[in-house]
Task: structure prediction
Amino acid sequence: MPLTAQDDLRHALPASPYARESLYYDIVLPDEGLLIFFYTWVDGGNRAGYLLAVVGEGDEKLAFHTGDGVDVGARDFDDWAVEGLIVRHTELLERAELGFTADDVAFSARVEGLHPAFDYQSNADGCPSFVATNRFEQSLRITGTLRVAGREIAIEGTAHRDHSWGDRDWDSMQDWKWLSAQAGEDLVLNAMQIHGRGETTFHGYVQRDGVLAGVTMLRGETEYDDQWQQQRARFRITDEAGRVTAVELERFAMLSFAAGEGIQLNEAACRGTIDGRPAAVHLENGWDAQYAATQAKRMQARAATR
Result:
């Protein structure tokens, strides 16, 4: 079914141990050397959580705050609050206000969609049931302020968000790549490749030349450091309009954390390009933690023999 404005609010979740609904706002600031990772979720029992991180050059955690199991009752996303984190969807599917306050960080922003929200059910491969009932992504215009590590930063540029609901069975995904990138307001994209339950699927969109089209293929090459964390990458993205878009990136900040029972998430904020235009880029890689640890050991062993 097509998205409606109500899809920017909470949904009835399935009776499942993996049921959750989540909001993520991704702000990559290449000129400032910063990643703002703004994430909140809720389960079927009205228990909410959040993760707010600010990471700088060299993977330095300038702020890191997380919480879980907070009872939020029937509170909805038009006036969401979990401890120090707030989200207000002031115009559904169009605009929102964000905020977070703690002793070492203060962040506030307003965001506005640069195109209609794009849901993964609109892709040819649909939205895998173990990822979500549905999930939408949207590139954004952002204005705001950030105070962290003695710095006062005015934010004005682009960002990205996603919103998903249903089952999130992290461990049914064998590995994946999730990419968001903006080269100004008129050339933006989201692309995802999932290997899960023996299948490979492709998701996301490219918005360029005023045309929004679903992703049909993501192909690329990635270089890893000795921790098996993505350092550089080159991608070619094909969409339903027949266009091929090239993305190149180099990491300047990394945030890593665990999810599910055995998944490692590596969140790389990058300086990059889209078809040669300077871009803010985020590349998330998800791995089975044991597989990632094995690859890291092999990378380290190879480096020791050089």
About this structure: The mean pLDDT is 97.
